[in-house]
Amino acid sequence: MGKKKRERVLSETEAQAVARNIRISPQKLNLVAQLIRGKKVAAALADLEFSRKRIARDVKKCLESAIANAENNHSLDVDDLIVAQAHVGKALVMKRFHARARGRAGAIQKPFSHLTIIVRQVEEKAAA
Q: Which protein family is it in (predicted)?
């Protein structure tokens, strides 16, 4: 018996990877995600490799995972992949405090984020 197989949410030409609980605010992570949206995979990897942002390393790791999923699980051609979507979601927020003057406390929030990258295979248009 067992459970029924879950229907595939993405189309046959798409693959995704999700990085959860990344220790950075969604606003900062979105700046790096904007760099790669809509680009070919090779160009996106090059941009992340030479980005000066600390979080670019984690985004690159997630993108490489999406590429590997496309190649190994869905038999897509790596050379024809583009980054279809790269969206950032809010995760938990650790709350800490910092001692201030006269017995008060200052709130410190340490946010976490989720990153989802979807790659899509597009056919190259033949040059006429």
A: Belongs to the universal ribosomal protein uL22 family.
User: Which residue has tokens 């496309």?
Assistant: 70
Q: What would the two tokens of residue 37 be?
A: 């949206």
The Cα–Cα gap between 1 and 24 comes to: 43
Look at residues 8, 13, 10, 124 and name the one whose alpha carbon lies nearest to residue 75. 13
- Return d(Cα 74, Cα 91) in angstroms, integer: 29
Model confidence pTM above 0.85: yes
Taking a C-beta distance cutoff of 8 angstroms, is the pair 84, 36 a contact? no
- What's the pLDDT tens digit per position in 69-90? 999 999 999 999 999 999 999 9
